[in-house]
C-alpha cells in the first residue's frame, strides 16, 4: 500500500496520516491488530497492509541498539585473569544446549568484523560454531577461502560435520570453500597418518599453513552431557574414564586439554584428523568460542594453552570461570 504518485496531495496526506495513526496505535500504544481493526472499522488485513506501508514509506523507522563497542566488566576481568582478549555475549540460559546456541548467534556480528577480506579462514565443527555460522550476516569476502580444521562425517550430529559448516560459511560470506574428505576419528594411528598423506586430503590441509583466521569450538569434559552430541560421544565408557583419569577437561580443535592448559597425549587424539597444535600456533588470529555450564573448565583450559587470541563466551560462563579460578585451580 505504497503512496501512489498519481494521487492528489490531499489523498496522499490522508493516507499517510492513516498509516501514522495505525502505526501509533500498534507500536506506541501496543494495541493489537484485531483491536485496531475493531476501533477503526478496517479489516485486519487492511491494518496489516497499512503497517507494512508505514514501514516502507518511512512513517515508521525501527532501530535497534548496536553491539557495545567495549567489552563488559566481566569480560575485562576474565581477560585480565587469562591473558587473552575476551568478548562476553549476553546470556541467561543455564541449560548447556541453549547457552551454546545463544552464544553462537549473539557472536555472529562480532566474528563478522574479524573475517579477513582474503586468504584462508579455518573452522572446526561444533554446536556453537554451527549456530554462529548460521547467524552470520551476508557479507562479501570473495577473496577468502574457507577450510575445515577437523575431519568430520557425522550423519547423526550434523553440527559435527565440518564440511557442511564450512560450505555454509562460504555461502554466507561469498567465499570459496575447500572440503576435507576425511572422517573425524579413525580406527588406528597408521590409518590416520596414511589418510593425512593422501593427495585428496592434502589438497585441503595445505591451506592450514596459510590461515589468516581460525574459528575453533571447544567441547566439554569426557563425561559431560550437555544435551547435544559432541566429539566425546565417539568414546565408549572406558575411553571416557581413561581421558578423565588423564585430566582431560575438553578439547580445542581436536586436541585434548587439561585445566592447566597442557595437552593430553592419548591414542584418541592421535587417531583424530585435525590441524596440528604447532600449525595452529602460527595462525595470526585464533578465535575460540564456547559457552554453557559444561564449558567452564574448557574455556579456562583453552585460554591457558596459549592458542587463543580471542575467547568468546557468555556472561554466565565467564562469571563461573572467574569463580573457578578464584579457587586457586
Summarize the helices and strands and which ones pair or pack.
Elements: H1 9-28, H2 33-40, H3 44-56, H4 73-82, E1 85-89, H5 96-112, E2 118-123, H6 127-135, E3 143-148, H7 162-173, E4 176-177, H8 189-197, H9 199-205, E5 211-219, H10 237-245, E6 248-252, E7 255-258, H11 267-270, H12 277-281, E8 286-289, H13 296-304, E9 310-314, H14 315-325
Helix pairs in contact: 1-3, 2-3, 4-14, 5-6, 6-7, 13-14
Supply the CATH class of the largest domain. Answer: Alpha Beta
Number of E-type strands: 9
* Helix-residue proportion: 40-55%
Reported by name, the CATH topology of the largest domain is Rossmann fold
Kindly estimate the percentage of residues that lie in beta strands according to DSSP: 5-15%
Low-confidence stretches: 1-7
Principal-axis shape equals elongated
Distance between the termini: 64 Å
Q: Assign the CATH architecture of the largest domain.
A: 3-Layer(aba) Sandwich
Q: Helix/strand/pairing class, anyone?
A: alpha/beta
Domain module tally: 2
Give me the Rg, rounded: 25 Å
Keyword list:
single chain, 329 residues, alpha/beta, Arc Repressor Mutant, subunit A, Rossmann fold, nine-stranded mixed β-sheet, 9 strands, 14% strand
Amino acid at each position: 500500500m505504497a503512496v501512489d504518485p498519481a494521487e492528489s496531495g490531499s489523498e496522499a496526506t490522508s493516507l499517510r496520516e492513516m498509516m501514522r495513526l495505525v502505526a501509533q496505535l500498534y507500536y506506541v500504544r501496543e494495541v493489537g491488530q484485531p483491536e485496531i481493526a475493531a476501533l477503526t472499522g478496517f479489516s485486519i488485513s487492511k491494518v496489516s497492509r497499512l503497517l507494512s506501508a508505514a514501514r516502507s514509506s518511512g512513517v515508521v523507522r525501527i532501530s535497534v541498539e548496536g553491539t557495545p563497542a567495549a567489552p563488559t566488566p566481566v569480560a575485562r576481568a576474565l581477560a585480565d585473569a587469562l591473558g587473552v582478549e575476551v568478548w562476553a555475549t549476553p546470556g541467561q540460559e543455564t541449560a548447556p544446549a541453549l547457552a551454546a546456541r545463544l552464544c553462537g548467534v549473539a557472536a555472529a556480528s562480532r566474528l563478522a568484523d574479524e573475517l579477513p577480506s582474503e586468504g584462508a579462514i579455518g573452522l572446526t565443527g561444533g554446536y556453537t560454531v554451527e549456530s554462529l555460522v548460521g547467524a552470520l550476516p551476508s557479507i562479501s569476502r570473495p577473496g577468502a577461502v574457507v577450510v575445515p580444521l577437523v575431519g568430520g562425517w557425522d550423519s547423526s550430529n550434523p553440527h559435527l560435520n565440518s564440511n557442511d559448516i564450512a560450505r555454509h560459511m562460504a555461502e554466507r560470506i561469498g567465499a570459496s570453500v575447500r572440503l576435507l574428505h576425511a572422517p573425524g576419528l579413525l580406527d588406528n594411528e597408521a590409518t590416520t597418518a596414511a589418510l593425512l598423506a593422501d593427495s585428496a586430503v592434502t589438497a585441503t590441509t595445505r591451506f592450514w599453513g596459510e590461515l589468516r583466521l581460525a574459528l575453533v569450538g571447544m567441547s566439554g569434559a569426557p563425561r559431560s552431557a550437555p544435551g547435544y552430541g559432541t566429539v566425546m560421544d565417539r568414546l565408549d565408557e572406558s575411553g571416557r574414564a581413561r581421558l578423565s583419569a588423564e585430566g582431560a577437561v575438553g578439547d580445542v580443535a581436536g586436541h585434548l586439554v587439561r585445566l592447566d592448559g597442557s595437552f593430553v597425549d592419548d591414542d584418541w587424539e592421535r587417531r583424530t584428523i585435525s590441524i596440528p597444535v604447532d600449525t595452529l600456533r602460527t595462525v595470526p588470529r585464533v578465535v575460540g568460542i564456547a559457552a554453557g555450564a559444561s564449558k567452564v573448565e574448557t574455556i579456562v583450559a583453552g585460554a591457558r594453552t596459549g592458542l587463543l587470541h580471542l575467547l568468546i563466551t557468555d556472561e554466565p560462563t565467564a562469571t563461573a570461570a572467574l569463580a573457578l579460578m578464584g579457587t586457586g585451580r
